[in-house]
From TrEMBL:
A GO molecular-function descriptor: DNA-binding transcription factor activity
Sorted UniProt keywords: DNA-binding
Family annotation (SUPFAM superfamilies): Homeodomain-like (SSF46689), Tetracyclin repressor-like, C-terminal domain (SSF48498)
Name the UniProt record assigns to this protein: TetR family transcriptional regulator
Highest taxon above the source species: Bacteria
Chain residues forming the annotated DNA-binding region: 38-57
HTH tetR-type domain sequence ranges: 15-75
Length: 194
């Protein structure tokens, strides 16, 4: 007996197709980066026809933007960084950053964003807009720190992430949180001028 062939379009019954496509896109964009993750591969991973991906999301760029929507709202993490003595802000920033990246629910999506930022203009734009508009602008306003200093702090933390979580370069990849805080917090503190 042959298996029934899958018909293009929507699945019968209650549909989770959109969520399945987003989940598959996050996995493939994270594993392969933007350029190597095709609509066909994402559809295959989600168990849907590629036409359904286009139906829900239009272009690959639009799918990427939806899939790589940042999994955290800066409004929830900024108080963790900004609340407390100013002379400890470098330490709080490094700790908060590391804890977010170590969260197994968030890490794959963040790794996908970083990988895609290195391989596609769309990925780079999404990361830049998030860091500049949604994060740095708010920190600059709260701390009254020059934007150049904030960019320097952000570049330091993105570099840590790239080497620790994407490239998994040792000994950085297996260093403890305490080791990384001791190493990077003083530099971040200097950038933030406190």
């Amino acid at each position: 007996m042959t298996a029934p062939t899958r018909r293009p379009g929507r699945r019968p019954g209650q549909s989770s197709s959109r969520a399945d496509i987003l989940a598959a896109a996050r996995v493939l964009f994270g594993d392969r980066g933007y350029d190597k993750a095709s609509i066909r591969a994402i559809a295959g991973e989600a168990g849907v026809d590629p036409a359904l991906v286009h139906h829900f999301f239009g272009t690959k760029d639009e799918l990427f933007a939806a899939a790589m929507e940042f999994p955290i709202d800066p409004a929830t993490i900024l108080p963790l960084i900004l609340t407390g003595p100013r002379e400890e802000i470098g330490e709080r920033l490094v700790r908060t950053f590391l804890r977010i990246w170590q969260d197994p629910r968030l890490s794959p999506q963040f790794v996908g964003i970083i990988r895609s930022a290195t391989t596609s203009k769309t990925g780079a734009t999404l990361l830049r807009e998030f860091i500049s508009s949604r994060l740095l602008a708010r920190v600059a306003e709260a701390l009254d720190v020059p934007r150049m200093n904030l960019n320097a702090a952000a570049s330091q933390m993105v570099g840590v992430v790239m080497f620790r979580y994407v490239l998994e370069l040792e000994p950085l990849a297996s260093a403890s949180e305490e080791e990384l805080v001791a190493l990077f917090a003083p530099t971040i503190q200097r950038y933030l001028g406190a």
